[in-house]
Amino acid sequence: MSGLQPQDDEEDDSQLPTWARQLGRQGYRSFITLIETYFANRNMPVAIDSMEGLVKPELGVLPYSSTFGLQNIAQICQQAGRDEWRDLINAHFGSIFDAKDDDNALHVHMDDFARLREQLRARLYPVDIVSHATELIERPGPEGTLEVLALDLPTTVRTVSKSEADLWGLDAAQLFNVGRDNLRRGGLLKGNVVQLEQGTTVTVYMGDPFYAASHALIIDDYVTADMTHGMLVGLPKRDVMLLHPIRNVGAMEAAGAMLQIVVGMYRDGPGSISPNLYWYREGEFVVLPYELQDDFLQFLPPDEFSDLIDELGEVAGFS
Q1: Same domain flag for 123 and 181
Q2: Which candidate, 67, 128, 182, 192, has a CA 20 to 30 Å from the CA of 148?
Q3: Based on the domain organization, do 229 and 309 belong to the same domain?
Q4: What residues make up the domain containing 46?
Q5: Together in a domain, 290 and 309
Q6: Phi, psi dihedrals of residue 136, rounded to the nearest 5°
Q7: Per 3-state DSSP, what percentage of the chain is helix, strand, and coil (rounded to 5)?
């Protein structure tokens, strides 16, 4: 096993894998060493794909072919002291390998749909989940994301493969209906209204560490009758959903402020999902583009969004 070994000059942070740049050169080396040590101590032969940020156990080591991503635990470590990293890594992988019986994602029996039905969830992942797992049951989510069928266990979440679901005799659409119904059954998230620039606000929905952003899949449940112009939506990481109803010209200021939040949360994680800001209206998520150079972020709204803001300004007498 070996990770990337950059040279010892300050310019080489740019040579680190994208997922690991927040760790810095020395942090990255320490992190990879701790990952290697963890699996060596478990006597589990693995290959570490440092560029993709993946741990790949050798075939036959686990009951199912599994790949483990490193970005989330790297983001968790980056936000903690270096002396905490070993314990954080042990806890992260321990939740996967050490859970008991059917709580263990690697040993759960997948043939009994009636027993598993209430544990199925529709969940949003970044599109690069396809490099971490094979045979996913997935379909497009908001641009840059995938809606994936997951199994919600007491200590972890795992995806469901097509070969496993074939035993159940249901097609993907039926399974996603089950997954969304179960997501909805947990209840809507409670929002916290946060003041932004010039009197505008954004509502921050949290309260579910694995599925808060996935509530975008049932976002119509959050739409009220006065949202005729839609709303701005941010899904930066799995435990956060940001919403701003578009009712007046303050939406332009809200968009700029939300972009700052989304970009920062997506960068820091853990559980990064999408760096995009979306305009949700008429059942569709439209990406509102921007450019990010160094620390400067420029919002580049499409004409249709700019025209809406102009119309709202005219209604308010700002023309």
Answers
A1: yes
A2: 192
A3: yes
A4: 10-98
A5: yes
A6: -65, 150
A7: 40, 25, 35
pTM of the model: 0.85
Shared domain for 203 and 310, answered yes or no, is yes
- Give the span between the Cα atoms of 151 and 259, in whole angstroms: 31
Residue 307 is encoded by which pair of tokens?
């025209």
Quick check: bond before 270 cis, omega within 30? yes
The SS3 call for residue 3 is: coil
Residue 66's pLDDT is: 73
Q: Between the CA of residue 184 and those of 154, 214, 218, what are the distances in Å? A: 18, 10, 7
> What length is written for the chain?
319
pLDDT higher than threshold 50 for residue 2: no
**pLDDT single digits (tens) 194-217:** 998 767 899 999 989 999 999 999
Tell me, yes or no, whether 67 and 141 share the same domain: no
305, 279 Cβ separation under 8 angstroms: yes
Q: What is the DSSP string of 47-97?
A: EEETTTTEEEEPTTSSSS---EESHHHHHHHHTS-GGGHHHHHHHHHHHHH
